[in-house]
Specification:
The structure is a single chain. This protein is mostly helical. The protein contains 17 helices and five strands. The chain has a five-stranded parallel beta sheet with strand order 2-3-1-4-5, sandwiched between helices. Helix 2 crosses helix 4.
Length: about 425
């Protein structure tokens, strides 16, 4: 039987959209939410792992910690699809049962955040690795760095730069904090951040035109040979025979010491400081749960995702500005995300001029080719912005911030630096 049409001149009543699983869970108390999540996870993992109830009773979710493993990929995809919740590897540390993991998630589901107050004082922010302790054999030439906070659009800028025939801009290399590749591997593994090493593997795969397995073997050979990170920069640049090797690693701005290492390693380096309105950056931090991805590392910690995002935007940008104060004017350039998406040709022409190369139209078409952006298919993004695969063109609306509402105390945390950078904030 068909439904009757609305009378002439009357509008049909809009159908109510069924609540999502996350919305349903958010309406339950914590205990009921944990119980339902426990049942859901057991069903999903039982099918995926071909495990019976007894095996699930003994299963420890932290076994899935390897972010490159297929089981980790399944779990992270499941939580994003079913709950709209991004999961990060360090969140599995210490989870000895599915029930304990479900209880942890039960506290992460509600769309509310703690009031502005101190984080748990029993867990302090720490640095996961020590500063580099080795001098380079010789300085590298033709190296440029993009300095920014996370969520400032650095992946988009990287891909646009990679579109130039004389530039090589691979995914995040994570080299400056370390002396040698051995040092890098040991400290990334010790801090449960081995996945940060993926960008170098992707760069090698692209330059040598080999698959990921062969690229990992190549990097392993360099590691066995004890290569200094300056040698890695040189090998990548020489292989491409480019004017500039561009290292886009937002994490460098966490430490002035790390950025100063660029001056130790490189001769006549160039620096692009990428800035973005604090509102859009903080909103993205909250939505992507970056306060959980960072955990207690990189020197900043707070349980309130709004406060955490504001702290990172403020401190990391101040770090970059402090470092750049000592760099000659001709070696540094400020780039605004809003200009990249709002007037891309003018902006990329300016960046090309800064780097001493001619502008190429391919720079403003970042989605027309796989520029070390997707692995195997457009649905599997590589190191960098996980949302890049969801877009097909530059969109100036991504710079809009007026619709974002942040608590007053968050505005106050970033107001001073925002004004210094030319960004307005509501009163």
């Amino acid at each position: 039987m068909t439904e009757p049409m609305a009378p002439s001149g009357a509008e049909a009543a809009p159908r109510k959209r069924a609540p999502s699983r996350r919305q349903h869970l958010a309406g339950l108390d914590t205990d009921a939410r944990a119980d339902e999540l426990n049942r859901h996870l057991r069903q999903r993992l039982g099918i995926w792992l071909l495990a019976d109830d007894a095996a699930l009773d003994a299963f420890e979710p932290e076994r899935l910690l390897d972010p490159l493993g297929k089981d980790w990929a399944f779990l992270s995809h499941t939580l994003l699809k079913d709950l709209g919740l991004r999961l990060y590897p360090n969140e599995l540390r210490g989870q000895k049962s599915i029930a304990s993991f479900a209880r942890y998630l039960a506290h992460e589901i509600p769309d509310c955040v703690p009031a502005d107050g101190p984080s748990d004082p029993s867990v302090a922010a720490t640095w996961p690795w020590a500063a580099p302790d080795l001098d380079p054999p010789r300085k590298v030439t033709g190296t440029a760095f993009v300095l920014s906070t996370p969520r400032a659009g650095s992946t988009l800028l990287r891909v646009m730069l990679e579109g130039h025939s004389r530039l090589f801009a691979p995914p995040e290399l994570w080299l400056l904090p370390f002396g040698t590749l051995r040092h890098r591997q040991a400290q990334l593994r010790a801090s449960d951040r081995g996945f940060l090493g993926n960008g170098l593997t992707q760069a090698v795969a692209a330059l040598w035109q080999i698959d990921d397995v062969a690229a990992e073997q190549q990097v392993a050979t360099w590691l066995d040979d004890g290569l200094h990170v300056s040698d890695v920069y040189r090998l990548l640049a020489d292989r491409r025979n480019c004017d500039w090797l561009i290292d886009k690693t937002p994490g460098y701005a966490a430490s002035v010491t790390w950025m100063q290492q660029a001056e130790t390693l490189c001769s006549d380096a160039r620096y692009l400081l990428l800035i973005r309105h604090p509102y859009t950056v903080i909103e993205s931090f909250v939505r992507m749960r970056f306060h959980r991805m960072f955990g207690t590392s990189l020197g900043i910690r707070h349980d309130d995702p709004f406060v955490f995002g504001a702290m990172v935007w403020d401190v990391w940008n101040r770090n970059a500005l402090s470092f750049l104060d000592g760099i000659p004017e001709h070696r540094k350039c400020v780039v605004r995300y809003e200009d990249i998406v709002g007037k891309p040709e003018e902006t990329m022409t300016g960046i090309a001029s800064f780097l001493g190369v001619d502008y190429e139209p391919s720079m403003i078409n970042p989605y027309d080719a796989n520029r070390m952006t997707f692995r195997g298919s457009k649905h599997v993004a590589t190191t960098g912005d996980p949302n890049f695969a969801n877009r097909e063109r530059l969109d100036a609306r991504l710079a809009d911030w007026e619709h974002i509402r942040l608590p007053a105390h968050i505005r106050d945390r970033v107001r001073d630096l925002a004004g210094r950078l030319g960004y307005e904030l509501p009163q």
